Amino acid sequence: MQDLTVALVQADQIWEDKSANRAHFMKLLATLTSPVDLIVLPEMFDTGFSMNTELAEEWECNSSLKFLQEMALIYQSAIYTSFMCREKGKCYNRGVFVHPNGDFTIYDKRKTFGLAGEDQVFTAGTSEQIIGYKSWKIQLQICYDLRFPEICRNRISEDEQPAYDLLIYVANWPERRSEHWKTLLQARAIENQCYVAGVNRVGKDGKDLSYSGNSVCVTALGEATFCEAGQETIQQINLSKDSLHQVRSTLPFLKDR
Questions:
Q1: Active-site option among 85, 91, 109, 175
Q2: Per-residue model confidence (pLDDT) at position 1
Q3: Active site includes 143?
């Protein structure tokens, strides 16, 4: 069984400055100490969690996507994050999983955050997205999706295997609700018998909201490895498919769902 190496990039973000954010992530990624299979960046990686849709570029010629494709090629790693874009007159907080060869899969955030007015300016997605990568099945999620367990329920598929092995959340989740973030991520791992990777930003945004990060990888048993709170860091994690299969065979809860 192939293991998966994941780099959790916990970073500060420069408010609504795409060029500065891209340059910053380039510097951070240059510090990677060894090759990885997957790089995960925070939500709206090159703007911060902004409702300023004037920053949303057309999907057909999107510089954010082109930047991620360039990084995926340089590091020969998949990358998952989100950014704002416009398509057919509607704006989306769009998750993009970019493969090392530049191919990509999109996931539009399904639960737009009403408390920040996200639901007023961004159109919600309508369907889940599970992708295949290096023998792993990965479900893509974005921030506020975390509060709604019904939209990511794992289940036994027609091939008699769980629908996915890894659940990824990219986020701008405020420090004042960091206990919710940590607890819910562990709950998702336990109830869905999967790995969960959650990457959150640090620093302050343009609305003076503070972010503590607490980026984390959680095993199917709920064992969590957190990044240092409040600090920019890249944490490289190894996910073991054998360990995951052992948990699922020892505790075959999913079949009872």
A1: 109
A2: 61
A3: yes
